[in-house]
Design goal:
Elements lengths: L1 E2 L2 E2 L3 E3 L6 E4 L10 E4 L2 H9 L6 H16 L5 H12 L6 H14 L4 H40 L6 E5 L16 H8 L4 E6 L6 H12 L4 E4 L4 H6 L5 E4 L3 E3 L4 E4 L2 H10 L4 E4 L5 E2 L16 H4 E5 L5 E5 L12 E4 L6 E4 L2 E3 L3 H7 L7
Parallel strand pairs: 6-7, 6-9, 7-8, 9-12, 10-13, 12-17
Antiparallel strand pairs: 1-2, 3-4, 4-5, 10-11, 11-16, 14-15, 17-18
Helix pairs in contact: 1-2, 2-3, 2-4, 2-5, 3-4, 4-5, 5-6
Length: 365
């Protein structure tokens, strides 16, 4: 996708063909900085610190983290140890486990001398597959946007509300929730995006808004609690969010606050869609209440980071020093509140039957 007119993915190999380079997302939107990861431990730190984030990108980074680990020691013990280090980084996003299981499936049968090269090959293909998957989500989801535009008599832009960042920064390219928006923009379908700021890390205001602006897509940043007001007043045509884990029955876990948007959408008859790639479905879970919810450092709630009028990047406290803060990273939206799931294979109901229809080979796993 575009950064000042230059196409970028979120993760790629350095010129030496071994180190991995990423966009440091903790510096956005005020600074665009590329950093290099040379070890498995560095890849793990990048995931924990959210220099990379978003379920698909976490999976891709973990795959490359395994490559970095196997360069010096490709033994069975080293493979298992690296997988353990990477798996412990983030508990909610299921793509992390999926990517490591897929890498282990390919690598475990091989002799140690062949593992590093095979690991780099499979990690690269995981990235390429993610790009294709996200583009396909866009191709399916754009039909929903086009239909709304045509129903309006093509008289005005389609107003879409999104939460957190499920854009290209959360994947290798294109994004999940934003992919239909980018495809609509390509097809000259006018859209306007309401961008929730998404506290506590402000990933909507800092990341989604930055992305959309880079592509010339009309958008407005709103405080998290404005969504219901906009829906009540007919200013939202549809909601599209992403998901970090989806149960086999269609419950979705996404950034904290998504559930409240779904409740407001249901109360105002606004369609609520979720964009997701197949690897985000956890076929072993059947109830969203069983999804582990990450609890992060309270500092993310108690401080905000921004740029001063002088151009300095600073973090400031916004709560009383003695006050405690709870920082739940995700909440679960039950399937009954989801109008449909937009996947790379098409759009289905948020239900066991809907998912089985699109992924018959996985439904029994």
């Amino acid at each position: 996708m575009n950064v000042d007119g230059t196409p970028f993915r979120t993760i790629w190999l350095a010129d030496d063909g071994e180190a991995v380079e990423i966009i440091d997302q903790t510096r956005l939107p005020h600074a665009f900085k590329v950093i290099s990861l040379a070890t498995c431990e560095a890849a793990a730190r990048a995931i924990v610190s959210m220099q990379v984030r978003g379920a698909p990108l976490i999976g891709a980074t973990a795959a490359y983290g395994l490559c970095l680990a196997l360069r010096d020691d490709a033994s069975d013990a080293a493979l298992a140890g690296a997988c353990d280090i990477l798996l412990a980084t983030r508990p909610t996003a299921v793509n992390l486990r999926w990517a490591l299981d897929e890498m282990r499936r390919v690598l475990a049968p091989l002799p140690a001398r062949d593992r590093a090269a095979a690991a780099y090959g499979r990690a690269a293909s995981i990235c390429d597959e993610d790009v294709a998957i996200c583009r396909a989500i866009g191709d399916h989801g754009v039909a929903l946007i086009r239909d709304l535009w045509e129903k309006s008599g093509k008289s005005r832009p389609v107003n879409i509300l999104t939460h957190c960042n499920a854009g290209w920064l959360a994947t290798v390219d294109w994004g999940t929730a934003t992919a239909p928006i980018y495809v609509a923009h390509e097809e000259d379908i006018p859209v306007h995006v309401w961008v929730d700021e998404t506290r506590p890390r402000n990933q909507g205001a800092s990341l989604t808004a930055w992305e959309l602006g880079g592509h010339g897509i009309d958008h407005t940043v709103i405080v998290d609690n404005a969504g219901g007001h906009l829906m009540q007043n007919g200013k939202v045509d549809m909601v599209i969010t992403g998901t970090d884990r989806t149960t086999a029955t269609g419950d979705v876990a996404n950034k904290i606050g998504t559930y409240l948007k779904a409740l407001a959408a249901a109360d105002n008859d606004v369609p609520f869609y979720v964009g997701l790639p197949g690897p985000t479905i956890d076929w072993t879970l059947f109830d969203g209440r069983d999804i582990p919810i990450e609890e992060r450092d309270e500092a993310e709630v108690k401080t905000v980071t921004g740029r001063t009028a002088r151009g300095d990047i600073v973090s400031v406290s916004v709560t009383p020093e003695a006050s405690r803060a709870a920082n739940y990273g995700f909440d679960v939206t039950p399937a009954r509140l989801v109008t449909g799931l937009i996947t790379e294979r098409g759009i289905c109901s948020a239900s066991a039957a809907g998912l089985r229809g699109l992924y018959p080979e996985s439904a029994g796993s």
